[in-house]
Amino acid sequence: MRYRVLAVVAAALALGVVAATAAASGQRAEGNTLTVWLQVDAQNGWPNLVSAANSAFEASHPGWTVDVEYQQWSDHLQKFDATIAGNDTPDVIEMGDTEMTKYMADGAFANITADKSQFANSGKWLAGLTASSTYHNKLYGVPYYAGSRVITYRSDLFAKAHVKGVPKSLAQFQADLVKVGKMEKKVKGFSPLYVGGEDWYTALGFVFDYGGSIATYKNGKWTGTLDSKKSIAGLTAFKKFFDATQSKSTATLDGTNPYPYTVFSQGRTAANYGPAWYTCCTGKKYAKATK
Questions:
Q1: What is the CATH number of domain 151-287?
Q2: Contact, 210 vs 231, CB < 8 A?
Q3: What's this model's pTM, rounded to 2 decimal places?
């Protein structure tokens, strides 16, 4: 699962929390303009919602305007770092949950713990989403949206391999993938399930399933725990699954080079693992064969 978080940049105006007359440092805030960085996902997927939120803010804060600047996931962190160096940051920025910790630890975001109750549905936020926005028991981000990771697969190839129904366990899924792999040998470089050898999103799912973790925090110090017995057991299980499903990705490739949905759209895999929106990019030829 990957989460999206709206973080409030330190010393800037907190969206929907601070009155329009509140003092705010920074060149942009002085101009009565609230600068918000969102990813292009919002521009393409829910522009009406963004427009409604902007209008509501401007209506409740006379004299203020909202300036939304859309960013790309590929370079938004580099651009944000540049604004920090130039003391000209946006007031609110969208980040993924895995990107938050560095900036919270560095003091780049405003502490909005005291304002949590003023945000809609704050009492019903997902625990994982809240945790990704929290550092040392202080809240620095507001949950935006979350999405589950799923298996996108070609039902035609599974049916051709005489696989019936959805697997109810990882072992069964692995066995089904092996059947598909034995059947589909005409396509060069075909992988029953395409997973990058260094796809840490996938690998960490195994680590957590076996009770492992990345690191622990105690007495003011972080200690890496990927070498613990439970973490190693999870990584070992991931390797066995990787090998058994005959993924043609090398052990040095991650989940972005190439993207699993690119391999899917080229007909070189029967299934991939990733966000539900991967189905948008599987290619027209195989779109009807996905589930």
A1: 3.40.190.10
A2: yes
A3: 0.73
